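Example (one chain per record):
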Amino acid sequence: LCYSNLTPKATEACTMSRGQGSVVMGDADSGSEGGQQGSYEDSEQYSDSDAETHLGLSPEREQSSGHAARGFRMLKAAEVQEQQNQCLQQVQDLVACSRAVARSLLIHWRWNVDSLMGVAAEKGLEYLFKGVGLPDPSAPPPREDRSEAVCCGICCETVPRSTCPTMICHHVFCSDCWAQHFKTGIMDGKARNLRCMEFKCGAPCDDEVVMQLLQGTPEGKRYQESMATSFIEDNNRACFCPSTPWCGTAILVVGDLVCEPECACGESFCFKCKAEPHSPCTCTMWQKWEDKTMGDSETRNWMIANTKPCPKCSKPVEKNGGCNHVTCKCGQHFCWLCGSSTGMAHTYGNIDGHTCGRWKQDLDKKISEAANHHKRYMHYFERWKLHTDSHKKEGSKRAELLEKIARQMNEGVDAPNYGWMVAALDQLKVARGVLAPSYVFAFWCFGGEMFADDFTEAQLKCNQDLFEDLQAMLESEVERLSALTTTCSSATLVVDQDIRGKVINSTVNIEQRIRKFYDFLQELLDQLTTCTEQIAMYKPRKNMSV
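Predicted structure:
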């Protein structure tokens, strides 16, 4: 293979090593003793297809097949329109209706053809049409004389019947009134819910008639855009990629809705709540965690545990030592134990004319609870923050490695195959993305009230011990691999075979431990009886874009 014209972009095709060597795929931290035997081939041959298969890169041909296998598809504008047309044609063929009626039915049923057809088969077309506001499809249309004149029910003008648009419900109004009605509805944000003007009718308007009357107007352009994006915005299984700036891609989920798609631009997100990826944490847990970390609840807990309000000016006062007699900046003297106003005369153990023994016990309990809660929160917060920051750094390490490889190749130095190293950095990023939200899961699941009614105290303690054991095993292997990759990332990229074997072994171990961790979490959530919580199941090669 010639490397003379290789660019940094091309170096992303570094492959997993192939050949005859084998390493021990044990689950021990040593990475070299015991465990399951597995072959990891080692050849200097370069293969684009292997790179795409093993490293999670995103070639064009993988977007339609590989991502579909992972439960979602990425669609560009032309593909969105194609999917929309397929759904419309399918409903038209099955229900024997016009395109306008098919669109109204699909928007009402959020583009779920299966649900629509299930209702039609179970309750009949009349029920299906009535739910949308459409007339009974079995009723014969009214006889119309296109040559007669009619009086518009809105402006009371007499106009030829031939100049009046024909709507699905067959109510007649003049073109000017229809156009003004459409413009008003579109400007009010009701482009996909334009209804007939007839009193108590409520039938949806024909989209083809709307476009005909508004052709060449700003409202017509806005209506056309709204109809074009309806398949994504009104579809429970589709959404636009939340990247900023927007990459122009839409995501269509073809499997479980509780998933974390990864767009070709590298943006990953939770499809259910549209937040950043947070599996193995549930959406409910993540939303409560964001409210807690972004809000002032922990600040309030710290204030309760460490300060007292002055009884005169109500400003918080922190005691940094000394006796229980405290003086505020405003000059007010008060007791630190109960917060009551006192005089200035005092000794280290007594304040003249003041006793608060009973109140001290109650207040100490309140302070102790707030302090313990804050310490528990900080325990989980610090570890969540540590892995979150490390997750962000792993992508930059991968980019730095590829730059070093490209630099050596451009200088004419024969660089060894570093696909195993790229895979290790990718696996580290995935593992950090699992460990960070796992601390959020632990914060809400154990010691809180979220699942208190689903488990006894003994069951919860047992589940917590198992959870923390699996979490600690994964965390220790992640730190081990992180240290190994740091050793390998030297300026010269010279790595001996012993280090290489340990890196490969650790990479495989992390993958196995993540799977075991998710299996336990799924079993835990399956035991819930008072609520239903789901997590996006683990997908290999998730979050591997630079």
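Caption: The first strand starts at residue 22 and ends at 25.
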